[in-house]
Specification:
alpha/beta; binds 2'-deoxycytidine-5'-monophosphate; Rossmann fold; 14% strand; 8 strands; 5-stranded parallel sheet; 221 residues; 3-stranded antiparallel sheet
């Protein structure tokens, strides 16, 4: 049997990372967080003083950038060899990533690298456009979602766990704005891919979601 590509898309905070990582671990597949790549581009742009709306400079940056991951759980992210794992998780970098990811040249550069990785190994890749653009012929496609309230509560929980306190209302507003931008951009907007299995995780235990996806992959073809 050839490589199996599992595409997991959905809005911010739907539980994609936890689910994708664990599905990959249980199946022995490579895991790739494509959002971390857009976050790394945004982080590098800010560090270099590049405006988040300078399409030409951001496209050059995205083509030149050296993003690598290691095999830890969760994987560490390196930019030109420097560990940026926690820097790219700041909420303002999430917002900046959502802005730079609107630029077609940035997307082309990231999609090319993602497709290259998917050609090598069986992989679980999470993002916004994996089932629609990166691997439209993925063997298994999942669209993971949850209500804005539920997603904001989960994000708040994650931030509290790292010692940060942010008002729930502010997180809800950030998530709604990010959803709007990700779903309404011209290039590769967040959409349910053709043939995707839609899962709303409101009130569902994450372990059950993982089990459902793993058995769907195992019974595939
Ligand atoms: O998954 P995340 O929240 O870390 O992603 C950060 C931003 O990157 C997200 O708001 C939109 C962008 N993104 C994208 O455009 N395409 C992807 N495949 C993954 C992320």
């Amino acid at each position: 049997m050839g490589n199996i590509r599992v595409a997991i898309d959905g809005p911010a905070g739907a539980g994609k990372s936890t689910v994708s990582r664990e599905v990959a671990r249980q199946l022995g597949f490579v895991y790739l967080d494509s959002g971390a790549m857009y976050r790394a581009v945004a982080f590098a742009a800010i560090a270099k003083g590049i405006s988040l709306t300078d399409a030409a400079a951001l496209t050059t940056l995205a083509n030149d950038i050296d993003i690598t991951f290691d095999q830890s759980v969760p994987p560490r992210v390196f930019l030109g060899g420097t560990d940026v794992t926690s820097d790219i998780r700041l909420p303002e970098i999430g917002t900046a990533a959502s802005i730079v990811s609107q630029i077609p040249g940035v997307r082309v550069a990231m999609v090319r690298q993602q497709q290259h990785l998917g050609a090598r190994d069986s992989i679980v890749m999470e993002g916004r456009d994996i089932g629609t653009v990166v691997f439209p012929d993925a063997e298994v496609k999942i669209y993971l979602t949850a209500s804005v309230g539920e997603r904001a509560r989960r994000r708040a929980g994650e931030l509290v766990a790292t010692g940060k306190f942010v008002a729930l209302d502010d997180i809800e507003q950030q998530i709604s704005e990010r959803d709007y931008r990700d779903m309404n951009r011209d290039d590769s907007p967040l959409r349910v891919a053709d043939g995707a299995w839609e899962l709303n995780t409101d009130g569902i235990v994450i372990d059950d979601v993982i089990t459902m996806i793993v058995s769907r992959v195992r019974t595939h073809s």
